[in-house]
Amino acid sequence: MAASGSAAQRLLLYETEALLHRLGRVLPLVTQIPAVPAAAIAPVAARAIDRFLADGRDALRELVHQYRSWLRDAGEQVDPSEAQRRFALVRLRFNRVLAHFETFADALLQRCEHDYGTLLRGLDVLASDALALAAPHLEPVPLITYLDRGIGAAIRKARTRLPGGGENPVAVIRVPRERMVGSGIGASIVHEVGHQVAASLDLLKALRMTLRAQQAPSDEAALWGVWERWISEIFADLWAVGALGISGTLGLMQVVSLPRAFVFSVHLDDPHPVPWIRVHLSCAMGEALYPHPQWGRLRDLWNGLYPFVAAERQSELVRSLHAHMPKFVALLLEQRPVSCGGRSLRELVPATDRQPARLAALQREWRTQPDKMRRAPPTLAMAVLGQAKFDGSLPPLEESEMHTRLLQRWALDETIAVPTRLPDQTTAPFRRAA
C-alpha cells in the first residue's frame, strides 16, 4: 500500500498543482475580451458577471487547497482510490467554473466583431428599455445579447440556475443572426424580455392558478387547460405587442411563417402555441390594448397566407381555440397579480404611446425632426418603425438602415452618456414607399 500510495500521492499532487496553474489563467472577462467602448456590455452587467465568476474561482481555489493539504497530510499512507475519488470531484468543480466562463465568453466575444459589436450594445439598450416598462414593480436586472444561428430567439433568465449549478447573474438573450437588422429584431428582443418580466414578478404561478380554476367540469375545461400549457409564451407575446404595438405581431409572423404543416400542427407538450393560433392571439391582444381596424386587416392577411381548412388534422381543436380566444384574452388582461401592485396586466403596458394614431403622428413629426426619434425610448422608436412598415411608409431598405442607425446611436449615447451625432445622418427618416 505504501508504494502504491506514494505513487498516487505524487501523481495527484502533480495534477493538483497543474489544475491550480490552469485556474490562474482564467482571468476576469474584462481583461480578456477586447472591444471598442460602444460595443462593450454595460458596466453593471460586466461587474455582475465577473463578480459571479470570481466567486466561483475563489471557492474552487479554496477547495483545491483543502484537497492538496489533505493529500500531503495523508502522505504515503493515502488510499489511492479515496484520493482519486476526491480529486475527481475537484475536477468536476473545475469544469463547472470553466463552463460558466464559456457561457459568457461565447456571448461577449461577438462584441469584437466589426459593426456587429456596436449593434449588440444597441440591442442591450433596447432590452433594458423593454424591461423598464415593468417599473416600479420590477427591480432592474443586467441584460446582454448575442447572435446565434436559428430562427427563434431565446433567453437564459437572470437569477435562474446555470448548468452545473450557480445562479445566473445577468439575463442573456440569444438573437437569431438572420434577424439582423430589420423590424423583427425588436419583437424578438422584447418577447424574450417578457419571459424575464414574468420570472422576476413571479407572474406565471398566479396566471396558471387562475386558468386552472377555470377548468372546473365544463365543456371548456380542455381549452382552458391548453391556454395554461401555453401561458409562458403567451405572456411573452403580450409583452411584445404591448411594448411595440403592431410591430410585435409583424415580428412574430416573420418567425412562424413556416411550411403549412408546421403552422397548423398542435403539440400540447410544446410551450409554444400552434403558430396559426399564436398570430391570431397576438392580434386579439393587440386589438384589446390598442383598438383599431388595422388588426382586422392583419388577421385577414394572415388568413390569406394560411387559410384554415376544416378537414386538416387537429383542425377541430384549432377551431375551438380560435372561437374561445376572446374569452381567454379578456380574462388574461384583467388579471391583477399581487406583484403588480394591484394593476392589471392591461395596465402594465404603455397604452397611451402605442395607440396606432399616436404612432402615426410621431412618424409625421419625426419626418421633419429626426433627432426626436433617437431621443425617444427605444421600444417606442421600434413601435413607430413597425407601424410605418405596416402603413406602407417605410421601404424595406430604408427600414433596415433606420434600425441599424438607431442601434448604433443607442450604443453611442449609452456609452458616453450624451447625445452623439453620427456622420451622414438621415434627415428624412420616413418616406412614402413607391
What percentage of amino acids are in beta strands? Answer: under 5%
Helix count equals 18
Which segments are poorly predicted (pLDDT under 50) over 5 or more consecutive residues?
418-429
Helix content: 55-70%
In the sheet with the most strands, the strands line up as 1-3-2
Q: Which class best fits the helix and strand makeup?
A: mainly alpha
The major beta sheet can be summarized as: 3 strands, mixed
Oligomerization status of the protein chains: single chain
What is the N-to-C order of secondary-structure elements (H for helix, E for strand)? HHHHEEEHHHHHHHHHHHHHH
Ends apart, CA distance between termini:
88 Å
Q: What is the β-strand count? A: 3
Gyration radius, to the nearest Å?
Answer: 26 Å
Mean pLDDT: 88
Shape by Cα distribution: globular
Tags for this entry?
three-stranded mixed β-sheet, about 65% helix, globular
What does this structure look like?
With 434 residues, this protein is mostly helical. Among the domains are: 2-112, no CATH class; 196-351, no CATH class. Helix content is 64%, strand content 3%. It is built from 18 helices and 3 strands. It has helices at residues 2-24, 43-74, 80-109, 116-132, 183-200, 203-213, 221-244, 246-256, 260-263, 275-289, 294-305, 315-333, 345-348, 351-354, 356-368, 371-375, 378-391, 396-416; strands at 143-148, 154-156, 171-176. A 3-stranded mixed beta sheet has the order 1-3-2, with helices on both faces. Helix 4 (116-132) crosses helix 5 (183-200) and helix 10 (275-289) packs parallel to helix 12. The N and C termini lie far apart (88 Å). The relative contact order is 0.10. The model is unreliable at 418-429 (pLDDT under 50).
